[in-house]
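Practice problem: predict the structure.
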Amino acid sequence: QVQLQESGPGLVKPSQTLSLTCTISGGSITTRDYAWSWIRQPPGKGLEWMGVIHYDGSTYYSPSLKSRTSISRDTSKNQFSLQLNSVTPEDTAEYYCARLNYSGGYSYTDFQEAYDYWGQGTQVTVSS
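Answer:
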């Protein structure tokens, strides 16, 4: 059974960098059939895909967040991380990590179909 667990600070000040880590258990971040995404949900809004890191370490980001987002991984710890720079209160959201299964051929934003495992989510508030 694959499990994902987000961790990181719950409060970040405006203009600072939001940093979160997703720890994977029960599966490997380098398995060829999967990729690993960060997804967020602001209060009262829908899910927003932020970016992905593939099994080979390649990354792809949402065009709207690309200039502020970086996703990296530590294969020795079976973790991947998110950095979001220059945050504002609009970045306040529940942040999720999730595993994308390539087999269905779905896009990164097919949240119901493409992702087979999700973390429980972590609330991040941007406030001074």
